[in-house]
ACB domain-containing protein (Panicum miliaceum), 150 residues
Amino acid sequence: MAGDWQELGQAAAIGLLFAFLVAKLISTVIAFKEDNLRITRSPPASPTAAASRSPARPDTPAPAAPPKPSHGGDVSSDGGSDSDWEGVESTELDEEFSAASAFVAASAASGTSVPEEAQLRLYGLYKIATEGPCTAPQPSALKLKARAKW
């Protein structure tokens, strides 16, 4: 009698495992179809093959050497980060995000607590500023990594 239950339990476990694997296979195939993904092979990229395919022409100038750091060999770029943004216009979203971060800084400095609704709105602005607007449809329930990012 005990052997029958053990056999039945083993069969049920194997059946559940098989069903899970089949479901995972089907979800992967559907994901490839929905995203129009294809498996392709890129041609091997070796430096000798690239040089033989595109011989240097004498009338074209040689590529310029990369600029050397002007601050005594220090590799960090802390000092010149503001000059990188010169001439870049800020959008309405950037202005809202700047105002929100100033509001949070002022609230933290004064020691007052921010209402929960304002915190959620600020978090939404933060997510939009860092990851972009959420226009993508909700991913499949079987795609755990995609749902975590969504």
